[in-house]
Design brief:
The protein is an alpha/beta fold. Helix content is 47%, strand content 19%.
């Protein structure tokens, strides 16, 4: 199991079941994609207000969003890094930061008609895919990323 670090905003209250599924989704996504459990990520669960500030500061987009991913490594193609990855003291390789807005996750779960558990699992999977080089700007890349998301959500046995 990876050694993910979790930071909860003092404004956010997620129960243990939700936090557990987020960690499980991150761990299984990394294991599935990288065929190794020696990877980790920093996970920050925050409010719309705080994620809006981060989005504005880092991406110059002044609005809240559901999830942000800040990879440390430059993957020249998904899951293939041409750099020597630095290991943390505990032997894991930190891939980057995942920031999830609890407010938006709750709202989107209601809008899409599925559980909050499913929404945060999906956002976690989506974010890890970004950390390892997947993107959805071009149609072909979007199709590949969506396929990986479906495969991993099926692996987690979390369905719409």
């Amino acid at each position: 199991m990876s050694k993910n670090r979790i930071y909860l905003s003092k404004e956010v209250e997620f129960d243990d079941e939700i936090l557990s599924i987020v960690i499980d989704a991150i761990d299984k996504t990394m294991s599935y994609l990288l065929d190794d459990e020696g990877y980790s990520a920093n996970l920050i669960i925050t409010s719309d207000e705080e994620i809006r500030e981060i989005n504005k500061e880092q991406r110059e987009i002044d609005r809240a969003t559901d999830v942000l991913s800040f990879p440390i490594w430059n993957f020249c193609e998904p899951c293939f890094c041409d750099e020597d990855m630095f290991e943390e003291e505990d032997g894991t390789v930190l891939l980057g930061d995942i920031i999830i807005s609890a407010d938006t996750a709750i709202r989107q779960a209601e809008e899409f008609g599925h559980s909050l558990l499913r929404e945060v699992a999906f956002l976690s999977v989506h974010s890890v895919l970004h950390l390892v080089g997947y993107d959805h700007i071009e149609d072909g890349d979007r199709a590949l990323m969506e396929e990986k998301q479906r495969e991993i959500m099926d692996l987690l046995e979390i369905y719409r």
